[in-house]
Amino acid sequence: MEHLRELLAVDGRQALAFFVLGLEDVCEPGVDREELLYNASVLAHFAQTSTQAANELPTPVNLSDVFDHFVLDTTLMHDGPMMETAGAQCLLLAGFFERQMRQRHNIRWYAEVGASCFSRAAAQEKSSYKTRLFQTFARRFETWRQRHEQVSRQIERQLSKNQAFRDVTIWVQEHTAFLNVAVTTLQAREQSIDEARTVQGVPGVISHLIIPSAENDNVLTPTVRRAIVRYPYLTLLDYVEGTVDNEVVRLTGYVLSTPDTKKAIVRRVSDVQAIQHDIQVLSPSGEGHRLGRAIARRIFRSPQFQRFVTMPNPPFPIIVHRSVVTLVGVVQSEIERREMERITRQTQGILRVESVLEIRTGG
User: Fold this and answer.
1) What is the value of pTM for the model shown?
2) N or C: lower Cβ tally within 10 Å for the chain?
3) In this predicted structure, what is the pLDDT of residue 9?
4) CB-based contacts of 106: which residues, under 8 Å, 6+ apart?
């Protein structure tokens, strides 16, 4: 056990124990204990390492990553720790994820690559213990690869008992119940992950639930803006603007409720990969809210704006922050713009009015 601390370090003891039990179920009674523990540490390590990790070597998404990093690039062939990593990645992808990889990759060839990597790691290793262990994996790589695949099947069978996962297969990304399916929205992905966390006996969730990409940001941006306009819980005193960069939506503005609630605005939009927000939350019981309601009442009494009284989300939000009012959005004429600015300036308690209203005829 002491030797394992020199190997692939695992902080998540629950994840390690989970994979130890899984491997014990598929191994014969006399299996070498340290071989089993090392293989469990490999699975637990990758279960806790994101495919987008910045501070450590990320978990590979597929065997093409292994080919690019360790086969095509020959500069690492004499680097023992990197060869160990390559062998472990081959175990993960050609073993645990064999069924997902076999359609695009030659599993037998990558099993030979994995065995060769462990052999090279052994040749560079100074520790006699680790040398013997890596030599063993070089000889018995195929046996352990098949055991990893059997553990994968066991987990999938366990998940399939839950109605929510009847059509979900396993895959890799971020923290230990293994989900692989294409979903249409961010909300669907989050719901699937939340469901996975409720499965008894599974220590965490690894998710590679794929949201199909939009053609480009120019296609996605109008859809996001429509979702904001149509969101039923925004009021005249809420202002949210959305921009899109590489299918990631950034929300900015001011709201009178929690920003997490407002992220729901675009969770149902197809093709959105992630949401970032810089939304300031204003107190719904503060002075700004009182002034905002007073301005709104006066605006809706004006004949110019009475048609908006029943509209759930008028096109001209009123932002009140520290007694400074910012008028944004769209009006249909210069007359309407001036009238709204006049009404706002004449409201008692306002220190300053800033107007960025747009005039859009027929809008």
Assistant:
1) 0.47
2) N
3) 36
4) none
